[in-house]
Amino acid sequence: MVSFILVFMTTSTRAEAENITEHLLSERLVACCNIVGPISSAYAWKGKIEKADEFLVFMKTSQDLFERLSARIKELHSYDIPEVIAVPIIAGLPSYLDWISTVIRPEE
Predict the structure, then answer these.
(1) Beta strand pairing call for 4-11 and 32-45
(2) Could you list the pLDDT tens digit for every one of the 108 residues in the chain?
(3) Nearest of 30, 15, 20, 8 to residue 76 by alpha carbon
């Protein structure tokens, strides 16, 4: 049985979010991406509190693809340590979850 996840990623620009999501979609590592923003982010970085406008990306995929997905995001992303966080999808419309399965590429 496939375990589905929702992956969160932030970027500094919409263009970067669009570029990364286009790669991930074409490589079939994700089935769908939603870009939201700009959002206001505050975070601790190198001993300081930083604030920035960012774009939040929600990605739907399978847990089996998380390692490949996160490695690919790291390659494409401009941040030293990009946010890549996954949470389980515990339920969903069966036809939607089936659609995710048909779009993503199984683990190689």
Answers:
(1) unpaired
(2) 779 999 999 999 999 999 999 999 999 999 999 999 999 999 999 999 999 999 999 999 999 999 999 999 999 999 999 999 999 999 999 999 999 999 998 665
(3) 20
Q: Are 47 and 85 in contact (CB under 8 A)?
A: no
Q: How far apart are CA 26 and CA 38, in angstroms?
A: 24
3-state class (DSSP) for residue 51: strand
| Integer Cα distance of 57 and 86 in angstroms | 12
Q: Which CATH architecture has domain 4-103?
A: 2-Layer Sandwich (3.30)
Token pair in block for residue 106? 């199984």
Helices 14-26 + 66-76 axis angle, to 10? 140
Predicted structure pTM score: 0.93
Query: What DSSP character marks residue 27?
Result: T
